Amino acid sequence: MAIIRPFKAIRPARDKASLVASRSYLSYDEATIKEKLDHNPYTFLHVINPDYNNTVKSVGITKYKLIKNKLHDFINNKILIKEDSDKYYIYQKSNHNNTFTGIIASTSIKDYLDNKIKIHEQTILKRENIFKDYLEITEFNAEPVLLSHEPNKKINLILEKFINLRAEYEFTTTNKSLHKLWLVDNTDDIIRITESFKEINNLYIADGHHRCASSALLSKDMQTEESRYFMSFLIDENQLNILNFNRLVKHINNLSINSFMNKIKVNFDITLKENTFSPTLKDEIGMYINNKWYSLIVKNKKFNTISSSLDPSILTNNILNPILNINDERTDENISFYNGNISLDTIKQKVDSKEYVVAFILKRIPFSSIKKVADNNEILSPKSTYVEPKLRSGLTIYPIK
Q: Which residues have CB under 8 Å from 308's CB, separation 6+?
């Protein structure tokens, strides 16, 4: 039984929604952030970069206090408004490839602690604590955790009802995505949504493991009603678009290319490919090195766990760790991750330019496999999946107290 509830969001005034909502701060390069901050006084980037004009930048608790104050400035200037009643929010993002429609709600942290919200990714305690401090001082969360659920006819009927109505927000962003948001404030509709989710046994974190873990840490200290929940975007698992994450490595542990290839041959069958290559076969990984493409198929097919049978773990356990001495992919500066939206031609250029020595191309992991890993309480290797939709910050803001 999934426990969700409506909440009183802080959100953009209707005429400013397109100007306020922003991508995740980390997805912008420095020049783009500067351009947006210089030319858009309404962007939510101003809230999370309140001292961008200062020569000396604030850090830690000092910066978090400035962020909190900037949020209140946005409210006082009526850029953001506070809801006066609890609501659910139906959000839809669409582009030429996909349409994603789901419900923004507050979701029970107890469900997360009781393993009813399933994880598949290991978190870093230091990052958990940093974001926990951020939440505690700023007292808001502006980016929902992406949670998936099994298909549910009752939920689909509710979504169909609203997407045929006029949206509260409707705007297109420069990446050609159309965004719509509807307010669910009718008592009967709210009850229907809440009760429908009680029919769902488990939710699965598709994106936002650290946000969940940090919210759970905060709930132990703050213990307010709002802190017992976190903001989430709940979406049918069949709508998720899961892409691969490819790995690029800067050096090969002082090995010659011949020695490196010989070490790989111990555990893989290697086939030279004539053209740009992307793997398709089971247990197959692509590799680009020294201007050549290769297919690598692991020889040992005996796996002790579900996660160890998936391509990211096969690569980690047979090449990255034992040969390249990359022991922690989350922190090792020798490895970079490029999601499946980045073309193989771009990856090839990165290697040809000597920025990297070798690239490993992985297949996407189907969500059915991710669920099996989560249900078996296992953990995938870092950056095993790139999951869409990626949500906008500042479209709905969850006040923690």
A: 314, 317
Tokens read off for 87: 């609501």
Q: Is the dihedral of CA 135, 141, 146, 151 positive or negative?
A: positive
Q: Give the mean pLDDT of 312-335.
A: 94
Pairing of strands 268-273, 386-388: unpaired
- pLDDT band at 211, cuts 50/70/90? very high
Contact present, 242 and 368 (Cβ < 8 Å): no
Number of other residues whose CB lies within 10 A of the CB of residue 54? 9
Cβ atoms < 10 Å from Cβ of 366: 12
Contacts of 23 (CB under 8 A, 6+ apart): 390, 392, 393
What would the two tokens of residue 104 be? 């923004």
pTM: 0.92
For residue 45, which of 24, 68, 73 has the smallest C-alpha distance?
24
Q: Considering the chain, what percentage of its residues have pLDDT values greater than 90?
A: 86
- Rounded distance between C-alpha atoms, residue 121 and residue 103, angstroms: 23
Q: Count how many residues are written for the chain.
A: 401
Q: What is the pLDDT of residue 27?
A: 79
